[in-house]
Design goal:
globular; 1 helix; four-stranded antiparallel beta sheet; five-stranded antiparallel beta sheet; binds FE2/S2 (inorganic) cluster; mainly beta; Rieske Iron-sulfur Protein
Length: about 110
Amino acid sequence: MARLNGFRERLSEERVVPVETDRGPYVVRLVEGAPVVHYALCPHRGGPLEDAYEIERLLVCAWHRSAFRIADGRAVYGPACADLPVVPARFDGPDLVVDWTEGPADATGG
Ligand code: FES
């Protein structure tokens, strides 16, 4: 579990924020008012998903148009043959709480 203090306001202003964690690079984005935390690099060829488009409830890689369900990272279209890691996250007051599934995480805003 990681808590990013005061991150709610930052995310409201910036909408997409890269973060470095001890698990590698991730992106936090605000989707319909809720935080979504996903791995920063596309499973296909490592395209930067900070630049991905949101279409309906999909995240579309800008490089070769692989599409992933925002809710769970499932690859649903395009050349990616692996799902995108998505980590459960929620706001707790002004903070963002990221629920890593194993071990401690040291996430800091990048
Ligand atoms: S790098 Fe994302 S679809 Fe190819």
